[in-house]
Amino acid sequence: MNTLRIAVRALLKNKMRAALTVLGVVIGIAAVTTMVSIGQSAGKLIQGQFQALGTNVIVVMPGSSKRGGVRQGSLPSLTADDVKAISDDCPSVLAASPLVGAGGQVIYGNENWSPKEMFGVGEDYLLVRNWDLRMGGFFTEQDVTAAGKVCVIGQTVAEKLFQTLNPIGKTIRIRNIPFRVVGVLAAKGANIVGDDQDDVLLMPYSTVRKRLYGSSFNDVHAIMVSARSVALMSQAEIEIRNLLAGRHRIAPGQPNDFQVQNTTEIANIFGVVTGTITAMLAAIAGISLLVGGVGIMNIMLVSVTERTREIGIRMAVGAKSRDILLQFLVESVLLSSVGGVIGFLLGVAGSTGITMLINSFSTGVEWPIVVSFPAAGVAILFAAGVGIFFGFYPARRASRLDPIDALRYE
Fold this sequence. Notes:
The protein has 410 residues and is an alpha+beta fold. The protein folds into 2 domains: 2-51 and 271-408, no CATH class; 76-256, no CATH class. Helices cover 56% and strands 18% of the residues. It is built from 13 helices and 14 strands. It has helices at residues 2-12, 15-53, 80-89, 125-129, 141-145, 155-162, 205-212, 233-247, 263-306, 308-316, 321-361, 373-399, 403-408, and strands at residues 57-62, 64-67, 70-74, 93-102, 106-108, 111-113, 117-121, 133-136, 150-153, 171-174, 177-185, 200-204, 222-227, 258-262. The strands form 2 sheets. Strands 1, 4, 5, 6, 7, 8, 9, 10, 11, 12, 13 and 14 form a 12-stranded mixed beta sheet that branches. A two-stranded antiparallel sheet has the order 2-3. Helix 3 (80-89) crosses helix 8 (233-247). The radius of gyration is 33 Å and the shape is elongated. Residues 67-71 have low confidence and may be disordered.
């Protein structure tokens, strides 16, 4: 305790010099905390976007045809029967829904709107997407079988067409065909690229096929599948591949006429990318910590030179070399630790301010404010280590001074 008190008194004798010495460490810790927090915020944002897509989602797409090595486009290789087979015969699958794209203007009274997304889906679509209803209900299996003229709308569509009216039970027109609104989806907000996820209208896929397209075919544009858990994602993917290969009579060694995309794997890839970028930014910011450490060593060497006579007096009255070594080490660690705490506080303020600035200019999703306490803790410990590392040489030099030479020093 006495050593700490002496260290504080020695540092306060040259407040400006101590402050400038601490500045390098402050900048380093603040930079590390800010960069890591922003990187983790980006990672959390991406993970949240994939979670918004649905629960453990696997997307099955039609395969592409090639002619002369050139990709020609998608093949209509998926059917509603494939969806039922996936739901019934794949043990790792919780639910599946077909997806049939549509488009057009939606009219109610004097209001009209063209939703950004219009899909024909199955009755389990909300279960796959992990999407709740704000009001009303969803269409049933009977509606799908009968190609019922019912629909569920997103929050944006409800506001554009009905303003403050209750949409449930109201009739809208799509391509001159009347549809009854049976439900309104809970709001999801914008996605990572700024597209409004609530600007959507859902109908039974059979209705889209028969009434909007006038088609009697049973093909679908895609299949969205939800695995029973994250741990079963890979198993579900294998089961889907094997099932569809058998149903489509794909010979061994031949390319599949479908594609299976595991969104969790894509999310993990994004996570690795953002993690790598965060680590690189933290490493670059950490260089300033080394610069701050060099500053500490420089100032401590100056301090040893200035206090040579003081060191001689202390050793003359009984202080041992290890006492002198400890004294200067404590001063060095104290400088770096104070800089670490101040830098952490500035880093928290910096990451929060940058995130809020991004959100103020962003028209898409809102970046979460993340403060990386583990990174800050490691940075502060690293700062203390910097103090020990760069303070050891000056402290060792002070402890090895000859008392007689030190007393003669002017």
